[in-house]
Amino acid sequence: MTTPWIAITLGDAAGIGPEIIARCYQQAPALMRNCFVAGDVQAMRRAGRLVAGGGLAAPIAVLTTIGDMDRIPPGCIPVLQVGPALPEVPYGVVSAVAGEFAGRCVVWAADAALRGDIAALVTAPLHKEAMSAAGAPYNAYPGHTELLQARAANARGLSIDEMPVRMMLANHELRTVLVSIHVSLRQALEAITFDNIVDTLRITRVALRNALGREPRIAVAGLNPHAGEGGLFGEEETEIIEPAIAAVGSEGADVYGPIAPDTVFMRARNTGDHPGEFDVVVAMYHDQGLIPVKYLGVEQGVNVTLGLPLVRTSPDHGTAFDIAGRGVADYRSLLEAVDTAQRLVKID
């Protein structure tokens, strides 16, 4: 790491993103000391007033360049304006303008990370419908992960297929990595292939080995009830999942499974009175992996994108249009995302 700075992207200004960013600076200034907002000055001023609740809002320190971070006074929220100013958008309303700006901030931060100008990026929630309404190029991507994947692949002169990435959702008790991400359930079943599972296991192994400093214990969830029960309830386990596990195990990975999906998360959960048997669970599709993590509390959850040549984390929730602008949004998942990013790039 050659730079200590972490960029927090604004997210959708019609949602809770700016508000929870401002709340993090209010509640945990020491943790946020090396962070700045890649976003819009006026949107952050509005969020600061909302969080202040009639009191004195934290001043916004406008950055001209990232180098200005060395001169930011204590108690300020540093904001680097990304392109032209964002017109004020109403809270809780899908807006193509807000969607475009949110995407613009992610692209700026991704490019900065790929150049080495920032150590990591933390992404506040964007709204997929607003991103789609924004048009090209943002409507080509269902979410942050795919947009970042495309940007990183393009910077390396690769196709998207040549830079496979995976989503990991984690909290203090459980980590889970997904074989497929934002696709329909039918498409997710079609994505359960030998190659996709092998790629997922390899990406998970490298990422967790770097983070833990040792070989991670990887559990693989089955697809079918009771992990297929020897073929009685489906053949994906014996024909696809088991051979993929064997292939990666032969490379030295500490990998187990397939394990019945209704018990593997309980076995992996790490609590004070129950040390987890595994460091991470590889799940076959989105909801199989994310429901257990989110059930433990979205305020603790962090989304980490694995396989990118940069560090990206985000909170484990969306834009929450239903409560945006009310000053009641829970900031803790974003704070966990900042803390995770700092630990991944080893910032004290």
Explained architecture:
This protein is of the alpha/beta class and 348 residues long. The chain has helices at 17-27, 41-52, 96-115, 128-133, 144-155, 185-190, 194-212, 236-249, 264-268, 286-295, 332-344; strands at residues 6-9, 35-39, 60-63, 77-81, 120-123, 166-170, 175-178, 217-221, 254-259, 280-283, 302-306, 312-315. The protein has a twelve-stranded mixed β-sheet with strand order 3-4-2-1-5-12-11-6-7-10-8-9, with helices on both faces.
pLDDT < 50 runs, ≥5 residues: none
Strand order of the largest sheet: 3-4-2-1-5-12-11-6-7-10-8-9
* Major sheet: 12 strands, mixed
Q: Count up the helices.
A: 11
Q: Radius of gyration, Cα only, in angstroms? A: 20 Å
**Helices and strands, in N-to-C order?**
EHEHEEHEHHEEHHEHEHEHEEH
Structural class computed from helices and strand pairing:
alpha/beta
Shape: globular
What is the average per-residue confidence, as pLDDT, rounded to a whole number? 93
Cα-to-Cα separation, first versus last residue: 12 Å
Number of strands: 12
Q: What helical percentage do the residues reach?
A: 25-40%
What is the beta-strand fraction? 15-25%
What's the gist of this structure?
By secondary structure, the chain is of the alpha/beta class.
For this entry, give a set of tags.
348 residues; globular; alpha/beta; 12 strands; 12-stranded mixed beta sheet; 37% helix; 11 helices
Summarize the topology.
Layout: E1 6-9, H1 17-27, E2 35-39, H2 41-52, E3 60-63, E4 77-81, H3 96-115, E5 120-123, H4 128-133, H5 144-155, E6 166-170, E7 175-178, H6 185-190, H7 194-212, E8 217-221, H8 236-249, E9 254-259, H9 264-268, E10 280-283, H10 286-295, E11 302-306, E12 312-315, H11 332-344
Parallel strand pairs: 1-2, 1-5, 2-4, 3-4, 5-12, 7-10, 8-9, 8-10
Antiparallel strand pairs: 6-7, 6-11, 11-12
